[in-house]
Amino acid sequence: MDPVLYENIIDVCAILMLLLSVLSITTTRMGKLVQHFAIHSLVLAVIAFVVAYYTGKYEIYFTFALTLVLKVYVIPKFLNYTMHKINAEREIEPLVGIPGSLLICTALILISYLAAEPMVQSLDALGSTCFAVSLSIVLIGMFMMASRRKALTESIGLLLVENGLFLGTLTISYGMPLVVEFGVFFDVIIAVVIIGIFAYRINRTFNSVDTTFMRRLKDD
Amino acid sequence: MIDVELILLIPVISGILCFLSPREHIISWISILVSAIGTGFTFWVCGPVFLDGTVIEYSIWYLDAMSAFFMMITSAVAFMVALYSRGYLGLEREEKILKTGSEKFYYLYLNLFVAVMLAVYCVSSVGMIWIIIEITTLISTFLVGFYHDDKSTEAAWKYLIICSIGITLALIGISLVYASSYGIVEESEALNWNVLMANAEFLDPAILKTAMVFIIIGFGTKAGFAPMHTWLPDAHSQAPTPVSALLSATLLNCALYSILRFYTISEITIPGYASTLMLIFGFLSLFIASMFILNAKDIKRMLAYSSIEHIGLITIGFGIGTDLAIYTALFMVMAHSLTKPILFFCAGNIMQAYGTKDMSVVRGLATKLPFTATMLSIGTLAIVGMPPFAVFMGEFSLFMAMIDSGMWWLAGIAVVLIIIIFSGFARHIYPMLTGETDKEVHYSKDVTRYIPFVVLAGAILVFGLYMPEQIADGLAGIVNDIFGGSL
Predict the structure, then answer these.
(1) Whether B59 contacts B475, CB under 8 Å
(2) ipTM, interface predicted TM-score of the complex
(3) Interface subset of A 81-140, CB within 8 angstroms of B
(4) A177 vs B190: CB contact, 8 Å cut-off?
(5) How far is residue A183's CA from residue A193's CA, in Å, rounded to a whole number?
(6) Residues of A in contact with B207 (CB under 8 A)
């Protein structure tokens, strides 16, 4: 097939991921949010598959399989389990309202495109468009972590950041060496489990998963 | 050739043994004993590498003089921490601050944490370094949140989230480095740092520039660069005191080391770019730290800011980038890592004796706890850069290096900030030493609690007065071989 077709498929998927990130920012129901994350990861898996097929690198099929198993199935399952366990089905009033959040997201996307500008010439066609998108996803994920109040939403923010990152590595450099790729996956899994443990502990200690209660440590 | 594996395995075994040990009061002895063996072995393997500049390289491991230097510091501090932990946790157990059965978890995490920190220094792939740095966060989160109360949970949460984000940024940077080497080096070894080093001049400069921004911000979060330092005072103040010492004296070095690996590469491809970034972050850290030290209330938070200060100074040293500056920065890494544990251990003694971290409450140390008071004075004088201690030598030659490279202004600012920090320390520590208190002071007299103070104080005094020639040669070797200097 024509390489342009592959590039187009990947571009469309990348944009889809970006839109899903923006959608996640507007979601206040935890269940829905987990679902969005699962779809987000599914799109990432599709990209991994296309990149693997396009470049013929068998390692990327591992990335595809791992994403599919872990991020589309296992992690959402775990998040749902934790969510029910600590009764955190709804996000409380976010610190930044939804219209405001959307505005900030737009600004973040613009910033990413600006930041990616100097590198466009050095990267090939695939990387040059996707780098800005992956940077946007990373920034939106971070914004989610900063602006939402529940521990679990913050962990989904982190997962979105990781997805954005994987999009970046897949499209800029066609994945990383296999050992590194495995290690990163392993780390993400452990991180999510530990975040789950701590969300549970926060719930027990503060009787709430609202992280705004955690303002005791400061210099004054 | 299983030297490297053994170095990493010994702490792991120690952790497992501690965890499985049937009786609570022998756990600390197991940890001390195995830690002593581990430290001895680490020195036995790393010593020759550091002194002769030989390189150990096989399978995924890569150990050169710089790795050996950092590993020896880590290992030595870890041994001191193992010694100090015994008395500290023992007292907490008696006072029922610790739940029964939690001590074995402490030693398990502590030893695993040490193993992982050592692993940072001996892998050849910069991708692996990233993975291991992330694991250090994941393990030490449990140590920071060890007391399970509201404050430590908050500190652990902040630590986990902020460092995870930071490290994610670093991964973007690494993937960009990988992209910049695309088509230049073979893919299977593309992230091996010595391969990158050898091909550094062919890397794509535009991509590498962006990569360095991500890497310095990302790993800098973990190293405690301002303004990404916010997790650091919380984590250092809430962790059990021996762990605070370990975080400050060894964990920050891990992140710094990762930055240095990329720094050496980028200085070949795009000279002056990463070093400018490091100068900026160094000064910012120094500035922020000085402001907070002046108004600190909590002794451990003050010490945490002092770590930010020293990381700032070290970063400035690498940022200046002359041979003398890099040599000094390496020396300061060692000086800081040996000095800071003394102060944290003093803080631990004070906390346990007075039951508070608030410096305005603690009075009359000189009469109540004469040993701690002496060590606190020594430690304070040493950390603020008074002669004849090691940090003084470092700071002095750092200023020389700044002036040599024509950075008069920067040297002036740095001097002012260091004087502010000095007055901050004096303002808080002096009243603690003097004065009167009616407070009942509990204190545990345990010989393992005294040893680390004496050893560390002796070490900083020796390095302040006299630099052994072998160590000077070793450091010069690092500057020459890794940073491309000519000392």
Answers:
(1) no
(2) 0.89
(3) 115, 118-119, 121-123, 127, 134-135, 138
(4) yes
(5) 15
(6) 119, 122-123
Alpha helices in A27-97 (DSSP H): 30-55, 58-66, 75-85
Average pLDDT (B359-377) is 90
Share of chain B above pLDDT 90, in %: 66
Domain boundaries in chain A? Answer: 3-215
User: B56: which strand partners?
Assistant: B63
| DSSP secondary structure of B110-173 | HHHHHHHHHHHHHBSBHHHHHHHHHHHHHHHHHHHTTT-SHHHHHHHHHHHHHHHHHHHHHHHH
Min distance B298 CA to chain A CA atoms (Å): 9
B292 touches chain A (CB under 8 A): yes
Question: Residue A187: what are its φ and ψ, rounded to 5°?
Answer: -60, -40
What's the pLDDT score for residue A183? 83
B198 residue type, one letter: A
Query: What secondary structure does DSSP assign to B55-121, as a single string?
Result: -EEETTEEE-HHHHHHHHHHHHHHHHHHHHHHHHHHHHHHTT-SPTT-HHHHHHHHHHHHHHHHHHH
Is A183's Cβ below 8 Å from some Cβ in B?
Answer: yes
Ramachandran class of B21: left when φ > 0, alpha when ψ lies in -120 to 50, beta otherwise: beta
Which residue from A minimizes the CA distance to B213?
A: A115
Beta-carbon separation of A217 and B148 below 8 A: no
Q: Given B134, B165, B174, which is nearest A187 (Cβ)? A: B134
B124 min Cα distance to partner chain A (Å): 12
Residue B386: strand, helix, or coil: coil
Choose the mutation target among A136, A140, A219 for the interface with B, i.e. most B CBs under 10 Å: A219
CA–CA separation, B383 and B380 (whole Å): 5
Question: What's the gap in Å between the CA of A97 and the closest CA on chain B?
Answer: 22
Token pair recorded at residue B360 = 């305005």
Residue showing tokens 């690494």 = B174
Instruction: State how far residue A41 is from chain B, nearest Cα, in angstroms.
Output: 17
What are the tens digits of pLDDT across the range A105-157? 999 999 999 888 877 777 776 677 788 899 999 999 999 988 887 888 888 88
Taking only the tens place, the pLDDT of each residue in B22-79 is 888 889 999 999 999 999 999 999 999 999 888 888 888 999 999 999 999 999 999 9
Backbone dihedral angles phi then psi of residue B446, each to the nearest 5 degrees: -135, 130
pLDDT tens for each residue of A190-208 = 888 888 888 888 888 777 6
Q: Which of A169, A184, A201 sits opposite B131 (nearest CB)?
A: A184
Residues A73-85 have pLDDT tens digits of 999 999 898 888 8
User: What is the distance of C-alpha A22 from the center of its chain?
Assistant: 11
Chain A window 135-154: which residues touch B at a Cβ cutoff of 8 Å? 135, 138, 142, 145, 151, 154
User: Which of B 186-215 lie inside 8 A of A, CB atoms?
Assistant: 187-188, 190-191, 204, 206-207, 209-210
Q: Scan for tokens 């080093």, then name that residue.
A: B197
pLDDT confidence band for A212 (50 / 70 / 90): low
